[in-house]
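Holo model, zinc ion. Inputs:
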Amino acid sequence: MDTLPEKPPSAVRRQLRQQALFGCCFCGNPIVQFHHIVPLSELKHHNPEDMMCACPLCHDKINAGAMAESEQREAKAQPFNLLHGFAEGQLAINSEQLVVDLGSNWFFGSGAKLAVDDKPLLQLAEDARGRLQLSADLYDENDQLLALIERNDWVTGDPTPWDIEFRHNWLRIHAKAYRISLTIDAKVEPVILTGRLWRAGREFLIRRRLLTIDPRGLNNTFQNLGFAYASLNITSGSGKAAILADQIQGEGKFFNWPVPCPDRIAHGLKFCKEIRAKLRRNKKGKRPVP
Ligand SMILES: [Zn+2]
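Output:
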């Protein structure tokens, strides 16, 4: 067994994540490492029966010899998340720009970005330090809630997703085998989202270079567009789609990029600023009648 790969095979890692419900068996932390209960010094192996998920802190405690094998086996049999019934974590997004990339289209500003029947599936907001916060409702095609992301905090729904991979600023949720529901890559700017957002049997299919609305029905595609305070909304009954202005700002803008456009972020944010300034002017103008 000298040829044992250093990293456990992906199927073993996934099996361990699924068993532990996507968290440390001891404390539920979603950042996990793969611990060998039967130490590698005794046996070169990646046997899932003799391995478990543990966060870096708990893993360190085990490696320091501070946790008996019986205690490890107990946690493997009854992992923290399974006892609590859900998995959760916090996505770290450092971006100070309110913009996301959906299929090469950039959506700027706070508020809803994708919606079905005016109910947002994807929203942007900013925290007290002006950093981007993402919210998303993740349903499968049968309208069952797989996961919720509320201002960067994610939690699994019921049924729980098939797999979740998480690395601080990168999150991937699989609805089932070979079916990615959502990938959020917050290592880059703008943050890139890909996947399939469903609601009431309607779908937003977000590929890396293309956003398709309701691919089985309407099949409208969007590519290389900018949306400032504007969202895409599908009416579930008719399947019709529309670009809607943000309700709070009262105005939205949808545009093609000028060619060449050296600084897309600055360009989109400029539109947002203009819309906000207009809202402020309108509010000032509406003085109550004495
Ligand atoms: Zn832990």
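Residues 47 and 68 are 19 Å apart (CA to CA). The helical segments are 10-19, 56-63, 69-77, 80-84, 264-285.
Archived with the compound record.
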